[in-house]
């Protein structure tokens, strides 16, 4: 693979950076960054849910806790195991994403097919997080713990369905 000297990354109208890596890496790293962002956003959602379910007056007590501790604490609140299982799956995927994902795909020695499989794997992780967000929101809404409307978006068709 060769470097593509004509690829630039832009931040607003004022800043640009020349991409120094390989073309496939740019796509992979954008997908990887999106998945990491999704995980961090989900952690924030877990903190909010913990505050609501646990009637925590100060949810800041949990801000320095790991995702594993947050999930263990939250899982105690769910009578059904579907949400607990989803949370544990996300924890495992998060740990894999941070600690071994690139090594599993043998980056940087990857074929185009390897890159494609890795990106689809990352999208799968994001889908599971989206499903867990939906289930947590539905759980809170069904129990009148929050007053929200839960919508599900079909990413292929663009169709929006009201869940609660």
Key structural traits:
164 residues; mainly alpha; two-stranded antiparallel ribbon; 4 strands
Task: Please specify the SSE layout and strand pairing.
Layout: E1 8-11, E2 15-18, H1 23-53, H2 67-75, H3 81-99, H4 101-104, H5 112-142, E3 151-153, E4 160-162
Antiparallel strand pairs: 1-2, 3-4
Q: What's the Cα radius of gyration?
A: 19 Å
Structural category is: mainly alpha
Task: Give the N-terminus to C-terminus distance in angstroms.
Answer: 49 Å
Order of helices and strands: EEHHHHHEE
Enumerate the spans where pLDDT stays under 50 for 5 or more consecutive residues: none
Task: Give average pLDDT, whole number.
Answer: 86
Give the overall shape, derived from the CA principal axes. globular
Counted by DSSP, the helix tally is: 5
Helix content: 55-70%
What number of domains?
A: 1
Largest β-sheet summary: 2 strands, antiparallel
What share of residues are in beta strands?
Answer: 5-15%
Strand order of the largest sheet: 1-2
Q: Total number of β-strand segments?
A: 4
How does this structure look, described?
- By secondary structure, this protein is mainly alpha-helical.
- It has one domain (23-162).
- The protein contains five helices and four strands; from the N terminus they run E-E-H-H-H-H-H-E-E.
Summarize the structure.
The protein is mainly α and 164 residues long. It has helices spanning 23-53, 67-75, 81-99, 101-104, 112-142; strands at 8-11, 15-18, 151-153, 160-162.
